[in-house]
Amino acid sequence: MPRWRVLVVFLLPAVLLYSVFIVYPLLSAFHYSFFEWRGIRQAGFAGLGNYRDLFTVYPYDRQLWRAFAHNALFFAGTMLIQNTVGLLFALLLFRYGRGRRFLQAAFTTPYLVDPLVVGYLWSLLLNPTFGPVNALLEAAGLDSWALPWLGDTRTALPVIIVVNAWQWVGFPMLLFSAALAGIPAEYHEAARVDGASAWQAFRRVTLPLLTPAIGVVSVLTFIGNFNAFGLVYAMAGSTGSPAGSTDVLGLLFYRVAFVEGGVEAIGRSSALAVLMFVFVFGVSLLAGSYFRRRERTLV
Amino acid sequence: MRYRRLPALAAAGPGTWKARRRTRPPGLRRWIAGAAGALALTLAACAPGGGAAGPGDADDGGKVTLSLWSWRVEDVKAYEKILAAFERSHPRIDVEFKAFQATEYNNILATGLSGSDGPDVAQLRAYGGLQPLVEAGQLVPLDGKVEALSGFDPKLLEGAKGHKDGKIYGVPFAYQTLQVLYNKKLFADHGIRPPATWDEMIAAAGKLKAAGITPFAVAAGPDATWTLPIVHEIFGNARYGGAKFRDAVLSGGKKFTDPDFTASIKLIKDLEPYFPKNVVAVKIPDVQALFATGKAAMYPTGSFDLAPVLQANPSLEVGAFPVPPPPGSPVTTPVTPGWADGSFGVNAKSRHQAEALELVEWMATPEFGRLYATELKQLSAVPGVTPPDPLLAEMAANYAAHGAPYMLLVDFRYGQPNGDAIFRDEVQKMLAGQTDPAAVAESLQKGVEQWFTAGN
Amino acid sequence: MTARRRGPGRVAVHLLLWGYAAVALLPLVVMVLGSLRPTGEILTAPLGLPLSPTLGSYGRVWTEASFGAYLLNSLIVTCGAVLLGTAVSATAAYALARYDFPGNRLLGAYVLAGLMLPIRLGLVPIFYLMDSMGLIDSLLGLTLLYAASGVPFCVFVLSAFYRSLPGELEEAARIDGAGEFRIFGRIMLPLVRPALASVTLFQFVPLWHEFLYPLVLLRSEEKFTIPRGLSQFFGEYTTDWSALFAGLVLATAPLFVLFVLATKQIIAGLTAGMGR
Fold it and tell me: Could you tell me if the ipTM is greater than 0.90?
């Protein structure tokens, strides 16, 4: 059988399914962003008008940058907390004896619950009026720690980042566990024979070999964080409470497209989505090729 | 040095290949076969019979089934009861009531009306929320088709009109009023009567606070920002000048930066000590619980909140009062702000328009109004219908005597950004200590100026 | 390696891991407890122990909302979508990872692009697409949409796995005269079984919870999926918390079963890798 036919058989079903149900709607949305809209009816050609509106119409002009900055913080915080803790858990559990499977399962369990529900449950737990978290802190004599959490502009975003990490930590943990399992034991032994300390062995053997896994995790985290919606919506509402301190691009899109409705909603929201897409896609491609280069230098 | 000989064992989880090479999984083929079988079964099980047959097509023996869409998930049973009365007097028509989650309803309706299998009659948002459907030509104008509309309160009809063409696109079903609900027992226990003056109200709030009771159940948390413009209306409508100020803004005589409007915003900041602690973290269920359990004495809210409060505590004795005008108000009588809640309209693509019109005509009759008021405990928009519930009747009377439009909702949702959307964010900011009343007013003015031009 | 250490370090590791396990599971206990309390009680005190535990909410979810039917629909849609999505992705990812052909990188980027789409973006065009194909109020339409939405993620993860497999394997097989499909089916696919289990799990969970598209695309109650069915408990101003919690507990339970099955695969793969 000629090679191209093999390729077609392998590739066609996925490409077809994906093109019809994902790419075609995406292209339509791209197309929508260049038109004026009257409700769900397409009116005249708008050129870049919808894009210009996002940067010039108050308050979107400010909210756009603010939301973008929060997404960047969200990503940085998640890399720092979720993925480091995920790696730590993977390392600790790697040679852990009894209970390893249970712990792995327990850490991954929050992922099974819908982000909207997770957000709701944690808002209950952190509620300053009824919540047990502050009640516990007060009982332990840590009254000054009993903050309004989601009601304070300084703590709200960090709290959401931590809860998000709580929900997702099982994901990097599983991927890192899988990658760790793939490192031949001889390397560690070799390192030990060379007299390397545990930290040196980790730094110079384990970590470089984890590069591909770190690449996959980073890119997926980036994409996930820049499209964050459900959890933030459940914990901070559609406005990014309090005072917009947790507003992210996903919420801004939701507000422009659905909450504040308006007759021009489809055009403006499509323009915003296209911008988000171009940015996330561009960065992901760059990151992907960066990590692939790193991989090659390891050989 | 030894490390340098590492093969490119890349990516997550490659470690399995060596083990797998030795033990080829016997179950694999079974797995694939099973997967394929299940898939075929799945696809067969849910293959559609060539284009979905809509409920509107289900005619048998000349009978027509109308599909009626709504965002009131909690009212399904009540509507079924109400619509049974219609079906009795219109034996040729069946009505199927379908409720969708309120937060997603706008999308569902906009797409549903444009598709081939949408509703025949739909519950419609009011004012600005109606415009996308009107401008897309998705609704049937009812002028001259539903005679009874001429008897409706023009203020309520405004909510069902196209902003540009002035045509009526729906039969209003209800209106909402804004006032302070209070716990009768707590008031009696502390020797407090519904206040006749602003100072009396503040004195009562101080007394309650001293007794360890939250005076005003106000939420400004993540799910509650939309209630902040409502709280502002309740306390501040008289202070900014009510309907007169509204007319002045619409005609271009005044702006939101007017000192009276700024002063009305400041009232919320001044009242903050009487709100729950950390009000910016407090959510709607929290204040409902505070009020329902007697931990808060007063609840500034809309008539729509009566049902949820009584659901939480059916034995709660609730009264209501309109807030007395604050000092310095241009208006000297207590004001009850209100707005049209929504309407029922006809899908322009409906295949049963005649029957759909029959249904909305019936929705303009006192029969529907009475059923609606009784079954749903809401204020019916049908003229002449008084609610059987004494408290609601009192609210209706207050609105009839000194009603004023909830301006930001009624007039400033016709463009993006919505007036009340800007306002709620800014008021929350103010309560979080990040801005002041004058800046809130400026922001609001700047926001609506993006699309609003006075004098239109 | 750390756990092998003796003394306080080891105790600290145990404490950290088991302590965190409690934090990971606790909020789920809140959900279960909430389902045992009547809504009136939840409204007056959002959190608390069930003073008079009742299973009434479960009965209500099962009868008032026909949860059994929702469960079946959810299973059909989600299983169908995950199987289809994984099956087509497993072959496509293989071709992208192991064959060098012109346009390979471009096609990879094309597929990857779908990973970055906020699902809400496509609402209006997807509605029109489904409407034109007669797939409104059809579980098949939802299944195809969901299957397609999983393709980018599956291809992304699986191709990373395929790429990591050493080339000697297929070369050896090719010298033995094995055809391309045989190499794929008999040699390469079995090697990525843990990865298949992972992508199945990670596709399944979000699709199981997805509620926007069923809201917009499904019309008749007998076709509702679980999230679409549960949305009936969210009123405009009131929510039936008790029933909602019960529904959520029932909705999450099947995920635990899947999870246990999938991790068995994933972890079996890991152990095999370590056994060398």
Answer: no
